[in-house]
From TrEMBL:
Residues 15-26 have a biased composition (Low complexity). Its EC number is 2.5.1.54. This is Phospho-2-dehydro-3-deoxyheptonate aldolase. InterPro entries: Aldolase_TIM, DAHP_synth_2. The lineage of its organism: Bacteria, Pseudomonadati, Pseudomonadota, Gammaproteobacteria, Nevskiales. Mn(2+) binds at residues 73, 356, 398, 428. Keywords: Cadmium, Cobalt, Manganese, Transferase. It catalyses: D-erythrose 4-phosphate + phosphoenolpyruvate + H2O = 7-phospho-2-dehydro-3-deoxy-D-arabino-heptonate + phosphate.
Length: 448
């Protein structure tokens, strides 16, 4: 981006703008000390990884690739365990294998992990039995237990979040570099609890076909092809808690500008996408590729101005628009937004988040998402983009590799009553492994 774009920006300039969704820390000095300590810690990602992702997204924007972004709605410190991280990686690998095989295209893998520890809330406080306490805003801020001590925002959690993110990234890198993602051995990615899945046979056929293709290519080349032994993985999280993002924003030797080195791909949520707000101000100045959630309340004028502010030089790969309309509203709202962005000449990558617009509550009060609504939104997104002369370049999903029952429907046709068996999310419902893999298989057919 042009130097003029940064002339009035710094990592702290967001503090001069209205900042939504920020916790109220009771001890200003403790917050300042924690931010200073965080600023001195090593970065979690590197600038060349960030630049590599931006190049991948630029190719996907041109039609050469498909983005798979997925992971937990909100990570918890307690889930920073090897088996949970491994299962999360497995489901993304298996979904990407299905997409690579079916789409015959590159897949850009971006995990919603190693930093997704903060969540926006619709209310500042929560009241139970006449007692009012601050809302739970994710483990980066406070704890879910309903007590005054647990719900008080604690700046030490910023440091804990950095440590847990570092452990997660280190473990994922170790798995990938050690051959866990080797395309010669996709059987490494199996999850024990789904060996009797209704989708197992179809998936195994894909595994066998891909293995045959790898061996055929290596026979032609006359040697093993190293690229088949590992895959690239990138991290992402919502750039919500700006004190945390600020502390990890740095200059890099021999490169211009500032990089957020807490993640490869930060995004702005709908609750914090207001023009003139602190989150847009912060994100406009960093060199990372940026995502923006686009909901049904966003107008064409608002979206086009966001595009202008966040990507004034129309840099390829810089800006990804993640639409999250809901299956019942996507047909009404999305076409006009696509047309407005196209008419204004903005260069963006469009991907679909079919999760957030399809949340409902069961009679017992559990939040869930019907699989048929999730699938319907993806189906409609492909159709709408084609009709508008655009292209759907990816999906953004909340999912887990655990045997949870949080979304209804899917291959096993989970009912609202089934949710009680293994509902574990503290925030939003996630697709389990079977549902995620089924959705990947459906996407292949929709994109054909």
């Amino acid at each position: 981006m042009s130097p003029q774009h940064f002339s009035d920006w710094s990592p702290t300039s967001w503090q001069q703008h209205p900042a939504a969704q920020q916790p109220q820390y009771p001890d200003a000095k403790a917050l300042s000390d924690a931010i200073e300590r965080l600023r001195q810690l090593p970065p979690l990602v590197t600038s060349w990884e960030v630049d590599a992702l931006r190049a991948h997204l630029a190719r996907a924007q041109q039609g050469d690739g498909f983005v798979l972004q997925g992971g937990d709605c909100a990570e918890s410190f307690a889930d920073c365990r090897p088996e949970i991280i491994t299962n999360r990686l497995k489901v993304l690998l298996q979904m990407s294998l299905v997409l690579v095989h079916g789409l015959r295209s590159r897949v850009v893998r971006i995990g919603r992990f190693a930093g997704q520890y903060a969540k926006p809330r619709s209310a500042e406080t929560e009241t139970r039995d006449g007692i009012t306490l601050p809302s739970y805003r994710g483990d980066l801020v406070n704890a879910p237990e309903f007590s005054a001590s647990a719900r008080t925002p604690d700046p030490q959690r910023l440091l804990e979040g950095h440590a847990r993110s570092a452990m997660t990234i280190n473990f994922v890198r170790g798995l990938v570099d050690g051959g866990f993602a080797d395309l010669h051995h996709p059987e490494y990615w199996d999850l024990d609890w789904v060996q009797h899945s209704p989708l197992a046979a179809e998936y195994q056929q894909m595994v066998d076909a891909l293995g045959d293709s790898v061996r055929f290519m290596e026979t032609l080349a006359g040697r093993p092809i190293g690229e088949f032994s590992r895959v690239e993985f990138f991290t992402s999280h919502e750039a919500l808690l700006l004190w945390y993002e600020q502390a990890q924003t740095r200059r890099v030797p021999r490169k211009e500008g500032w990089y957020n080195l807490s993640t490869h791909f930060p995004w702005i949520g709908m609750r914090t996408a207001e023009l003139g707000g602190a989150h847009v101000e912060y994100c406009r100045g960093i060199r990372n590729p940026i995502g923006v959630k686009v909901g049904p309340s966003m107008t064409a004028e608002w979206l086009c101005e966001l595009c202008r502010v966040l990507n004034p030089d129309h840099e390829p790969g810089r800006l990804t628009l993640i639409h999250r309309m809901g299956a019942d509203r996507i047909g009404t709202h999305l076409p006009a937004l696509i047309e407005a962005v196209r008419r204004a000449g903005h260069r963006v990558l469009w991907i679909c988040d079919p999760m957030h617009g399809n949340t409902i509550s069961t009679p017992s009060g559990l939040k869930t998402r019907p699989f048929e609504k999730i699938l319907s939104e993806v189906e409609q997104a492909f159709v709408i983009h084609r009709a508008c002369g655009s292209r759907l370049g990816g999906v953004h999903l909340e999912l887990t590799g655990e045997d949870v029952t949080e979304c209804t429907g899917g291959a096993r046709n989970l009912s609202p009553a089934d949710l009680e068996r293994a509902y574990r999310s503290t925030v939003d419902p996630r697709l389990n492994y079977e549902q995620a893999l089924e959705l990947a298989m459906k996407i292949v057919k929709l994109a054909a």
